[in-house]
Structures are given as structure tokens and as C-alpha cells.
Write a structure and sequence with these properties.
With about 120 residues, chain A is mainly beta. Chain A contains no helices and 11 strands. The model of chain B has no long low-confidence stretch (mean pLDDT about 90). Classes of the chains: A mainly beta (about 120), B mainly beta (about 110).
Chain lengths: ~120, ~110
């Protein structure tokens, strides 16, 4: 079974530029998550999709971040314009609801550096 | 108040010893709990999930959940240098299982 795919793996941009990340979840996984992980911290949930719908985006900085999930499969996360503090690893994860909860499987992540 | 709290460590144990990692959570209605391992520069990988009070064992790993005390732990028996990593605790709550991660505990297994 193929895992969660993400691209690009690395991205360097200047502040005020825009950037987009792509995620393809594990086949059949209805739930998709985007996380931001700053060095030395735990992953911070940015947005959670259940199929096409957003179920939690309370920590997404909506003035600059946007995300969509196309046809309940692939997803893109965009930052426009980027700030220095957006430098982080952006992780995509997907889950198929198991007994009582959601076990998540993570992609390799995209390391973003904003200069 | 942080929703999921972990001691950042590092926790150092000698090879072959038992490593004990702890996590507390603030929301009493949290339903599911997970332990993830994250090697430096890599993404988290699921080790264990636990949903009900008590112990759950999988190989060298044992997860323990005490909902009354709002406490979940991970024991690693016969620790190996390859176990050296950051261990993340996560909890979920709500109908759509909102997930919250702790900041992680760094484990160092000394040969």
C-alpha cells in the first residue's frame, strides 16, 4: 500500500512570495490533515478535512493560508504572502477511522525556508 | 493550559533498560490516545493507539491509559539505541476526532 505522498520536499522562498504544497493521501482515507511543525515543537494542526468538507480550521491563519481538497482526494495548502515565521515543516497526514479513533499516517513533509 | 503535556527531556536510559514516557491531558472528554515516534528530520510514525483504560502491549511497547487521572504513558522494554527519537503523545476528542499533539519527549538510549 502506497503511503502519503507530498511535494515538494524542500522549498526556499523570500518573504512576501507565495508557495503551494501538494498532498496525496493513502487510497481510501477519508480524513486528511495539514500540520505545521516548527523545530523543537510538536505538530500543530492547521486544517482537517473529512472527505471534501472542512471539520477544523481553527488554527489556520486565514489571512495568508488557504487549503482545499479536490474531490475528496488530493489536497493543496497555499501560503500567500509568506512571512519569516512560516519557516517550518509542513506535514500532511491521512487516516481511516479505526475503532474509537483516527490513526494517522504521515507523509515525508515539506521543509519550507522563508528568507 | 496546554491540552497535552509532555516533559521535553531528554530522557536518557542505558541500553536494555525500560524507558518510561509520560503524557497528561487536560480535556476529560478526550477519547483516543496515540504515541508516535519521530526520528530527527523525519515525519512521525504511529507506534501505539489506546482507547480504553488499562494496558495495551505490542512487542517491546506497552501503552497505559488512566482516564480518571488523565494520564497516558508508554513503556519501552529492552531499550535499544535505535529507539533514540522524540516520542509524541496525541489525543483526540469530539465527533470528528480533533487531534492535539504534545511537544514530544526526546529519548536517548545510551549503548
Amino acid at each position: 500500500e502506497a503511503g502519503v505522498a507530498q511535494s515538494p520536499r524542500y522549498k526556499i522562498i523570500e518573504k512576501r512570495q507565495s508557495v503551494a504544497f501538494w498532498c496525496n493521501p493513502i487510497s481510501g482515507h477519508a480524513t486528511l490533515y495539514w500540520y505545521q511543525q516548527i523545530l523543537g515543537q510538536g505538530p500543530k494542526l492547521l486544517i482537517q478535512f473529512q472527505n471534501n468538507g472542512v471539520v477544523d480550521d481553527s488554527q489556520l491563519p486565514k489571512d495568508r493560508f488557504s487549503a482545499e481538497r479536490l474531490k475528496g482526494v488530493d489536497s493543496t495548502l497555499k501560503i500567500q504572502p509568506a512571512k519569516l515565521e512560516d519557516s517550518a515543516v509542513y506535514l500532511c497526514a491521512s487516516s481511516l477511522r479505526g475503532r474509537g479513533g483516527y490513526e494517522q499516517y504521515f507523509g515525508p513533509g515539506t521543509r519550507l525556508t522563508v528568507t | 493550559q496546554k491540552e497535552v503535556e509532555q516533559n521535553s527531556g531528554p530522557l536518557s536510559v542505558p541500553e536494555g533498560a525500560i524507558a518510561s514516557l509520560n503524557c497528561t491531558y487536560s480535556d476529560r472528554v478526550s477519547q483516543s490516545f496515540f504515541w508516535y515516534r519521530q526520528y530527527s528530520g523525519k515525519s512521525p510514525e504511529l507506534i501505539m493507539s489506546i482507547y480504553s483504560n488499562g494496558d495495551k502491549e505490542d512487542g517491546r511497547f506497552t501503552a497505559q491509559l488512566n482516564k480518571a487521572s488523565q494520564y497516558v504513558s508508554l513503556l519501552i522494554r529492552d531499550s535499544q539505541p535505535s529507539d533514540s527519537a522524540t516520542y509524541l503523545c496525541a489525543s483526540t476528542l469530539g465527533g470528528y476526532q480533533k487531534v492535539t499533539f504534545g511537544t514530544g519527549t526526546k529519548l536517548q538510549v545510551i549503548p
